[in-house]
Design goal:
Helix content is 22%, strand content 35%. The protein has helices at 24-30, 69-77, 113-121, 149-157, and strands at 6-11, 31-32, 35-44, 50-55, 60-62, 65-67, 82-92, 96-105, 132-135.
């Protein structure tokens, strides 16, 4: 990849794992020709430093364009009424995926999805703007506080 381009981070060396314990299929998918495919999407700067952009499995593809949930979430985090936000891709018949946002608002804040979409539209490319925004009292998390994106996908299916 060229400097600044985003691609999957692939590494190898004596300090890289040899495989997943008793999981040969997962090991074969992750380690190919001695290279570990990390699943992290990253870019390298002109000084050789790498920056993780997002996880490959979380990437949303809208009409052939890559949307990294973290980028959309960071815009949402900047909004004064939002406490928490998470973004996932949901199937779209025309574009492959569409961006779905889940937000937790501050106490007393107005629940207005259209205003939040307009806020995002001023800061993001059109294909990155959430098509729908759902308001939750809290985001589903595991015991360490990590947001459970799979649980958010289950909410959409209901």
């Amino acid at each position: 990849m060229s400097v600044g381009e985003v691609g999957e981070l692939v590494v190898r060396g004596p300090n890289v794992m040899k495989g997943y314990y008793k999981m040969p299929e997962d090991t074969a998918a992750a380690i190919r020709d001695g290279w570990l495919y990390t699943g992290d999407m990253a870019r390298q700067d002109e000084n050789g430093y790498f920056y993780i952009v997002d996880r490959k499995k979380d990437m949303i593809i809208v009409g052939g364009y890559n949307v990294y949930p973290r980028e959309v979430e960071e815009v949402l985090f900047e909004h004064r009424d939002i406490v928490e936000a998470a973004v996932i891709g949901v199937p779209d018949a025309d574009f492959g995926d569409e961006v779905q946002a889940f937000v937790v608002l501050k106490e007393g804040a107005e629940r207005n999805a259209e205003k939040l979409k307009a806020y995002c539209a001023k800061r993001l490319a059109k294909y990155k703007v959430p098509k729908s925004i759902e308001f939750l009292s809290e985001l589903p998390k595991n015991t360490t506080g990590k947001i459970l994106r799979r649980s958010l996908k289950d909410i959409v299916k209901q």
